[in-house]
Design brief:
Layout: E1 2-3, E2 7-9, E3 12-14, E4 21-25, E5 32-37, H1 41-54, H2 65-81, H3 83-94, H4 98-106, H5 108-122, E6 126-130, E7 137-144, E8 147-151, H6 157-171, E9 174-178, H7 184-196, E10 204-206, H8 211-218, E11 225-229, H9 232-245, E12 249-252, E13 257-261, H10 267-277, E14 289-295, H11 299-312, H12 331-346, E15 350-353, E16 369-372, H13 379-382, E17 389-395, H14 398-406, E18 410-411, E19 415-417, H15 421-430, E20 437-438, E21 452-453, E22 456-457, H16 462-467, E23 470-477
Parallel strand pairs: 1-5, 8-9, 8-11, 9-10, 11-12, 13-14, 13-19, 14-17, 16-17, 19-20
Antiparallel strand pairs: 2-3, 4-5, 6-7, 7-23, 12-22, 15-16, 18-21
The structure holds nicotinamide-adenine-dinucleotide.
Residues 151-155, 160, 178, 180, 210-211, 214-215, 218, 229-231, 234, 237-238, 252-255, 286, 384, 386, 412, 451, 456 line the site of nicotinamide-adenine-dinucleotide.
Length: 482
C-alpha cells in the first residue's frame, strides 16, 4: 500500500487543507493500492505562491544555466536509482504492461532531464544583434516564462510529466504539477525524488485532484503558462480559459491516426510493427494508428493478418513481463470502450476477432478487437476509443488513402508500411499530422512532437520543446543618449 498523508508544496510535505482522499485502485484486480490527500483550492493557492516565490530566489533564479543543468542531472540520478520501482508503480496504477513501463516510464524521465540539461548548457540566454537601421544594437534575451501549470493524464504519467518538467526546469521556470487522480502516486514519488536531488524549495510542487482542481489551477492568476496533455474535450475548455486570460498554453490532445498499408508491404513485418504502433499500452496511447487503411486488392489478407496479430496477443497481469495487453485504466474507460464496440457492430462493422471480455474474474479487461468492413465515416473510425480496438478500412489508390487518412478531425500520429521507404516518405509528406512513421513509429526526444487540427497546439520535445518555456525580451541599446 502506497499511502501518502501530505502534499509536496514549497519544498515541504504539508497536510492538505481539506480532508478529501484519492484512492488509487489497481485496474488488474480492483484492489486499492494507495491513497493520497485531495488538494483544496487553498493548497493550489499555496503551491502557486511557492512556485512564484521560487522564481525569484537566488537558489533558483540566481543559478547559471550550467548550475541549473547540474540540478537537472542530480534529479535524473535520483530517478535512475529506482527505475524498476517507478515503472512497476505505473503498471500497478494504470495497468500498463510492465515491459512498456520499463521502456517508457522507467527510462524516459531521467533521459529527458539529461537531454534538457545539455540543451540548457548549449542555449545562450542573451544574444546581441546589430539593429537593422544601424543605430545601435539590440539585446535579445530568453527569460523563463514563469510559473507553469503542468496537467497530465494517466496513460504515460511519468513520461508526459517529464515532457513538461524537464524543459520547464531547463528554462528556469517553476512548476505546479497536477497529475490525473488514477496516477497520483507516481507524481508524489517524483516529488520525493526531487527533494532527494536537492531541487530548491518551490521549484516543483504537486497538487492532487481531478478536473476541478485542474480548472482552478489553469485559471489561477499566479500561473504564467499552462502545459496540458489529455483529452480534446478538456483541452478545448483549457484553451478557452487561456485565450481569455491571454495565457500561453500547449495542448497535446487526442488522436485517430491512420496506418496506410501499401500494396508492396511485407505483411509479416507490418503486423509485427502494428502490435506496438496500433496497440501499445492496451490502445491507451494518443498517437496510435488505429485506423488501418488497406489496399482493396489486399484487403482480406490485411484483415486476416491484423486479426491474427490481435488474437495472438497475451492478455493478462500487467506485472507479468510476457503480457502484451493489460486491463483498461478504469471501469469507466472499459464502459467507454465497450460502448464503441457496440457502436461499431450497430453501424455494420464486422468483428473479426475479440469484441468481448477475456475470461478473468477481476479487472477491467477487454479483448483486443478488430473490425472489418468499416467506413471511414463510422463512429469507430472518427472518434478516439482509447482501447485495443482497430478498424480496417479499404482504399482504392494512394490518393484515396491520403484522402481517407486526412479525413479526420485529428492529426497527431500515423504510419506508412511499405518496402520502398522513399515512396513512404513521399506519402508521409502528404498526411496532415504532427508526426508520422515509415515502417515504425517511435517518438524521438530530439524532434518536436504534437498535433494539428483537434490534436492540439504547440510542440513538446526537441529544442522546440524548450523554446516553449522561454519568453523573449528585446532590449534596444544605444551607447549614449541621442
Ligand atoms: P482528461 O482530459 O480527462 O484528463 C487529463 C488531465 O486533465 C487529468 O489530470 C484531469 O484531471 C485534468 N483535467 C480534466 N479536465 C480538466 C479541465 N477542464 N481543466 C483542467 N484540468 C482538467 O484525459 P485522460 O482521460 O486522463 O487521458 C486520456 C486522453 O489524453 C486521451 O484523449 C489521449 O489521447 C490524451 N493524450 C494525449 C497525448 C498527446 O501527447 N497528444 C498523450 C497522452 C494522452
Amino acid at each position: 500500500m502506497h499511502a501518502y498523508d501530505s502534499l509536496y508544496i514549497g519544498g515541504e510535505w504539508t497536510r492538505a487543507g481539506g480532508d478529501g482522499v484519492i484512492d488509487v485502485v489497481s485496474p488488474a484486480d480492483e484492489e486499492t493500492i494507495g491513497a493520497a490527500p485531495l488538494a483544496s483550492t487553498a493548497d493550489v493557492d499555496r503551491a502557486v505562491t511557492a512556485a512564484r516565490r521560487a522564481l525569484r530566489t537566488p537558489e533558483w533564479a540566481g543559478l547559471t544555466p550550467e548550475q541549473r543543468a547540474g540540478v537537472l542531472e542530480r534529479f535524473a540520478d535520483e530517478l535512475e536509482k529506482n527505475q524498476a520501482d517507478r515503472a512497476a508503480l505505473t503498471s500497478k496504477q494504470n495497468g500498463m504492461p510492465i515491459a512498456v513501463a520499463i521502456a517508457a516510464e522507467g527510462t524516459a524521465p531521467p533521459g529527458l532531464l539529461r537531454y534538457y540539461a545539455a540543451l540548457a548548457r548549449a542555449t545562450p540566454l542573451e544574444e546581441r544583434r546589430p539593429r537593422l537601421d544601424g543605430a545601435g544594437e539590440t539585446v535579445v534575451r530568453r527569460e523563463p516564462v514563469g510559473v507553469v501549470a503542468a496537467i497530465v493524464p494517466w496513460n504515460f504519467p511519468q513520461t508526459l510529466t517529464a515532457f513538461k518538467l524537464a524543459p520547464a526546469l531547463a528554462a528556469g521556470c517553476t512548476v505546479v504539477l497536477k497529475p490525473a487522480p488514477e496516477t497520483t502516486l507516481d507524481a508524489l514519488e517524483l516529488a520525493a525524488a526531487a527533494e532527494r536531488a536537492g531541487l530548491p524549495a518551490g521549484v516543483l510542487n504537486v497538487v492532487t485532484g481531478g478536473a476541478d482542481v485542474g480548472e482552478y489551477l489553469v485559471a489561477h492568476p499566479g500561473v504564467n503558462k499552462v502545459a496540458f496533455t489529455g483529452s480534446t474535450a478538456a483541452g478545448r475548455k483549457i484553451g478557452e480559459v487561456c485565450g481569455r486570460l491571454v495565457r500561453p498554453v500547449t495542448l497535446e490532445l487526442g488522436g485517430k491516426s491512420a496506418a496506410i498499408v501499401l500494396d508492396d508491404a511485407d505483411l509479416t513485418a507490418t503486423v509485427q510493427g502494428l502490435a506496438t504502433c496500433s496497440l501499445l499500452n492496451t490502445g491507451q496511447t494518443c498517437y496510435l494508428s488505429t485506423r488501418i487503411l488497406a489496399p482493396r486488392s489486399r484487403y482480406d489478407e490485411v484483415v486476416a493478418a491484423v486479426a491474427g496479430l490481435a488474437g495472438a496477443l497475451t492478455v493478462g497481469d500487467p506485472l507479468d513481463p510476457d503480457t502484451h495487453v493489460g486491463p483498461l485504466v478504469s471501469s469507466r474507460q472499459r464502459d467507454r470502450v465497450e460502448s464503441y464496440i457496440a457502436a461499431g457492430k450497430a453501424e455494420g462493422g464486422a468483428v473479426v476477432t475479440g469484441g468481448g471480455r477475456p475470461d478473468r474474474d477481476k479487472g477491467w479487461f477487454v479483448q483486443p478487437t478488430v473490425f472489418a468492413n468499416v467506413d471511414n465515416d463510422a463512429t469507430i473510425a472518427r472518434e478516439e476509443i482509447f482501447g485495443p480496438v482497430l478498424a480496417v478500412i479499404s482504399y482504392d489508390d494512394l490518393d484515396h488513402a491520403v484522402a481517407l487518412a486526412n479525413a479526420s478531425d485529428y492529426g497527431l500520429g500515423g504510419t506508412i508500411w511499405t518496402s520502398d521507404a522513399e515512396k513512404g516518405l513521399d506519402l508521409a509528406r502528404r498526411v496532415e499530422t504532427g508526426s508520422i512513421g515509415v515502417n515504425f513509429f517511435d517518438l524521438d526526444a530530439g524532434a518536436p512532437f504534437g498535433g494539428v487540427k483537434s490534436s492540439g497546439i504547440g510542440r513538446e520535445l526537441g529544442p522546440e520543446g524548450l523554446s516553449a518555456y522561454f519568453q523573449l525580451k528585446s532590449i534596444y541599446l544605444r551607447g549614449t543618449s541621442a
